[in-house]
Specification:
The protein has 111 residues and is an alpha+beta fold. It has one domain (10-109): Orthogonal Bundle (Arc Repressor Mutant, subunit A). The protein contains six helices and three strands. The protein has helices spanning 2-16, 20-23, 25-36, 42-49, 53-65, 88-109, and strands spanning 40-41, 69-76, 79-86. Strands 1-3-2 form a three-stranded antiparallel sheet. β2 (69-76) and β3 (79-86) form a beta hairpin. The radius of gyration is 17 Å and the shape is elongated.
Length: 111
């Protein structure tokens, strides 16, 4: 029985350390899209994630507030355009998150 508890702790501990800002499903989608592109405009990101404008804005505000996303507002002709990209901190946080999830999932499949 003690061995089972130790194995369980090995799985649960990394889960408790996971970055909860990234782990939220909508923010995970946003981070995943921004991880594979240099930058994206708001419309592209909205289309990729299928989030509403308000929902996407809310999650982007959270990601920006923790320093994971950089937001640049400019004009393309006379139309406003919002360009988004992962900050260096955001890219590093996502890599740590991805590696942690890989470790957790690999640990589960080994049991």
């Amino acid at each position: 029985m003690a061995k089972k508890k130790a194995e369980s702790d090995d799985i649960i501990q990394p889960l408790s350390d996971i970055d909860k800002v990234i782990h939220e499903p909508s923010r995970l989608m946003i981070m995943s899209v921004l991880y594979v592109v240099e930058s994206a405009d708001f419309v592209f990101l909205r289309n990729q994630t299928k989030l509403t404008d308000g929902n996407l804005s809310s999650h982007l505000n959270k990601l920006e507030s923790v320093g994971y996303v950089e937001v640049e507002k400019k004009f393309k002709g006379k139309k406003p355009q919002t360009i988004l990209k992962l900050s260096t901190q955001g890219r590093e946080a996502f890599e740590i998150y991805r590696k942690s999830m890989e470790q957790i999932l690999t640990g589960l499949s080994d049991k």
